[in-house]
Amino acid sequence: MKITKREEPYLYWLHNIPELSEKAAVLLLENCESPSQIYRMSRQELKEKLISWGWRDKVAERKAEAFEQFRKEWRLEQAFEELQKKQIRMITVFHREYPRRLFAMASPPMALYCIGELPKERDCTVAVIGARDCSEYGSYAAGAFGERLGRAGIRVVSGMARGIDGIAQKAALDGGGRTYAVLGCGVDVCYPASQKELYGRIREQGGVISPFVPGTPPKKQLFPYRNSIVAGLSDAVLVIEARQKSGTFITVDMALEQGKDVYAVPGRLTDRLSDGCNLLIRQGSGVVLSPEDLIAELVMLKNRENGGDRENVGNRENTGSRGNTGGGTLGGQKEISGWQRKVSPEELQARRRLCDRTEGLQKKRRQTEQDKQISGQMSLELSAEDGILGLLDLEPKSADALYEAAGKRGMQMTMQELLADLIELCMEGKARQVSGNWFARAVAYSD
Amino acid sequence: MYSTILSGTVLGMESCLVQVEVDLSAGLPCFTMVGHLSGEVRESAERVRVALKNNGIHLPAMHIAVNLSPADVRKEGTGFDLPVALAVLTAMERLTEKETEGMMILGELGLNGEIRKVRGILPMVGEGLQAGITRFLVPLENLQEAGLIGKGRIMGVGSLKEAVEYLKMGEAEQKEWEEKRVRELEVEREHGLWQGKETEMDFSEVSGQESGKRAAMIAAAGFHHLLFSGPPGCGKTMLARRIPTILPPLSEEERLEVASVYSIAGLLDGMRAVSRSRPFVSPHHSLTPQALAGGGVHPRPGVVSLAHRGVLFLDELPEFSRKTLDLLRQPLEDRKIQIARNRETVTYPTEFMLVGAMNPCPCGYFPDRNRCRCTPYEIHQYISHLSGPILNRIDLQVRLKETEFSDLQKPGNRENGESSAGMRNRVMEARSRQDFRYRDMGIRFNAQLTAGNIRSFCKLGRKEEQVLEQIYTSMKLGARTCHKLLKVARTIADLAGSEKVGKEDLLEAACYCQGLE
Question: How far is B304 from B326, CA to CA, in rounded Å?
Fold first, then answer.
């Protein structure tokens, strides 16, 4: 269907109708000539159509009634102008800009609203996701990965939530990259409100995206769909810190369904916040030990994609059923558990081709190694330190614990001396005081 | 017939001499009392009448008028029963004016003529002594309290009969009886009948928590307010309870001050009266604002005043209601609290050391993310109502870590850990340095330094100035925090026995001044 500019307000109206589900809207669009024709449809006509698509009488009646009611209330042009005033763009599936990646989703959104821009097809995008209440380790990792990815020109997609999401996105911006935030509410609603500053920056340096009509308040039930769009917009998913039961796994599951690769940052066995990641690793996800690791993987992935291994998935016909995603064979296999993807012959071939390329990759790796040495700025390893700094960790420790540790290492000092030394380290920027007399190693990006 | 007897009443922390005047005149038989009286004083007419009757004295069928002078001062308390009864007896010519002349009389009467204790004896006796009165007749139960000042001739009597008997005696016999009473008191004291147990706590019992101990010592030395934060069971309360053991004992003057407050509150027991250890008050967090500040229709000292010269320990600080905490502002700032009620305004002293204890977040385990799942918002909410009134005024803030088994296990903690006695010695040394430094200043502790005079007492060398500037900029301190830091650094230097505030002192102080948010 070709949508002219004149039809756009009708499309916006259609998306706004309460009660009428997105599924019904899509079906209507597929079966009518234009949105304006739908607008002119009578109540009876709509009801019949809905019943013919399998809705029950009562539901169809209710939908048709809401439809008619809403048509009376809605002011077509005005509402659409308001959208533009707020600098919100509506990108529907008919739009050229609509990210084709999303067609891998089971049900791609009919329209995306966005302030700023959408990720481009050729962009390499990665979703960096994780716990909201992350540990110091998590926030450090999120910051380091975000920054490095941003600098490497890889687009970070996430949910702008507190914790890992927000930190990674902020870091990506700091690294000079672009980042995209997918919200579980309207794009004009800043949720969580505490991310106001980040929200503003992402609008300028990337885009704020939502599949929900502007003005939608954040609701619990909207977030899983938001997560699936995060997965849909990205080429791969990186999990930094997650508990065993966490919303992060919705994104991960969606990504798997869509045939995306999942990577996890390993953590300690004793950290509940790393349980999720470690579990993912056990199930076979990719392990990344440094941002360079991930970048190399992503480059490989992008090469594979450009090499034409993937089928053209931007096929509108697929969306009624499940999106089939070339490389993986996950289409319609929701019950698939874990990571044991069936490997299709095509994929095997692709993998073989990948092996051929490893030489080039190794070269690339060596290069990144060199880069690392030259810049010397971004290594996730903490340098070994002598003295008190050596006692400190990313996780804050109390002065008492440090005092004991110092004693065990045979450092002879009183509590006073220890505290004075610690503060001195803080002043030098090597350590930081967390709260009260707790101290941690200071590194770039530990929020 | 007219007669007069001296008595007294309490007005806030002050007290005032009261002249009890009785006149018997012909007319309709009645017993009227005038002189700006509160309810309990007015009721004394009935108690006096019945008590006299039960002791075989029937009031004459005359108009009995009682006036308590000065008439414009509100009288309250039950101490007027005995003076009224004796004045009536004098007016009836059963006693002579001479027998009660120059004597201050206080006491509550039971219907059987028994004399019961009254509150506020100590400040009233003090007032009497200042006015030149040398003889006092008080309830037997209050004898010890009245004797705290150690001046004047004080007699304690247990019943109206005894009182009359005593007054009728010759001076030599009276003195003999007085001495006998005091001796009896001492015997009682020796048998420990009323003397409660002195605290037997010691800092050496605390396992680990070196930084907590250190902070407690600094706080005690400079009389700084202190806040402990830490997971449940890490020993916050244990540390706080031991702070009085390292504070210097009450001086004679302070002891009377504290005893006066307790006397007015009616809480002065034998132990408090003689003890030189500092009060330790730890109210439950359901405390109402009135109970904290003091109040009631006739104001009485609240918790903040009962902690005068001692420690006010608020456990679970964030659980206190916002209103209650807000009330702490004036006491913390002015070291006294003024309570205005219907007709009167009273002022009570509140020079206490605030020790708070709190969990770092609602569940208590932050920043251990394995156990704590509190969101930053929840944590912010949890401590938000502290920040304004309290946190700003607390000089030392310490976060304690959880006690591990290895801490408990350490052999011979009692020998290893510094004992209260040793810590107290160091605190007292630091105190004497402060006493000397502030001798003409009207302040006594480092914590009392103001923005105006802090710089003249915390003189920094050029190198130290640089360090301070570095701390200020790198840790993003504000002006207020910077003052806190200087005050604490001053105390740390005092503890180290140095008149100069050094770099190490500043650095250590910086550790404690960082807010807990």
Answer: 13
- On chain B, the residues whose CB falls within 8 A of the CB of A422 are 511
| Cβ of residue A383 closer than 8 Å to a chain B Cβ | no
Total domains present in chain A: 3
* A430 → chain B, closest CA residue: B474
Please check whether residue B435 touches A, CB under 8 A: no
Q: Given A322, A354, A375, which residue is the final one in a domain?
A: A375
A144, HSE (Cβ side, Cα atoms, 13 Å): 25
CATH superfamily, region B203-209+225-442:
P-loop containing nucleotide triphosphate hydrolases (3.40.50.300)
Extended strands (E) in A242-284: 261-264
Q: Please report, as a single letter, which amino acid is at residue B454.
A: I
Task: Check CB contact under 8 Å for B369 and A273.
Answer: yes
* Fold topology of B2-190: Ribosomal Protein S5; domain 2 (3.30.230)
ipTM value for the complex: 0.71
Tell if the CB–CB gap between A435 and B510 is shorter than 8 Å. Answer: no
CA atoms of B193 and B188, how far apart (whole Å): 6
Per-residue model confidence as pLDDT tens for chain B (517 residues):
899 999 999 888 888 999 999 999 999 999 999 998 988 899 999 999 999 999 999 999 999 999 999 988 888 888 999 999 999 999 999 999 898 899 999 999 999 999 999 988 989 999 999 999 999 999 998 888 888 888 889 999 999 999 999 999 988 999 999 999 988 888 877 765 444 455 578 888 887 788 888 999 999 999 999 999 988 888 899 999 999 889 998 888 888 889 889 888 888 776 666 778 889 999 999 999 888 988 777 778 999 999 999 999 999 998 898 888 888 888 888 888 988 877 778 889 999 999 999 998 888 888 777 788 888 888 888 888 787 778 888 889 888 888 777 777 665 444 456 788 889 999 999 999 999 999 888 888 888 888 888 888 888 889 989 988 888 888 888 888 888 899 999 999 999 998 889 888 998 888 888 766 5
- Let me know whether A233 and A326 are in one domain: yes
CATH (domain of A354): 3.40.50.450
Of B375, B504, B516, the CB nearest to A420: B504
Which chain A residue has the Cα nearest residue B229? A436
Q: Any chain B CB within 8 A of the CB of A396? A: yes
Cβ neighbors of B222 (< 8 A, separation 6 or more) are B395, B430, B434, B445, B446, B447, B487, B488, B490, B491, B494
* Residue B403 in contact with partner chain A when CB distance is under 8 A: no
Chain B nearest CA to A89, separation (Å): 32
How many other CB atoms are there within 10 angstroms of residue B352's CB atom? 27
Domain of A436? 387-441
Quick check: B469 contacting A, CB < 8 Å? Answer: no
Q: Is residue A381 situated within a structural domain? A: no
Q: What are residue A161's phi and psi, to 5 degrees? A: -75, 175
Residue of B nearest to A435 (CA): B516
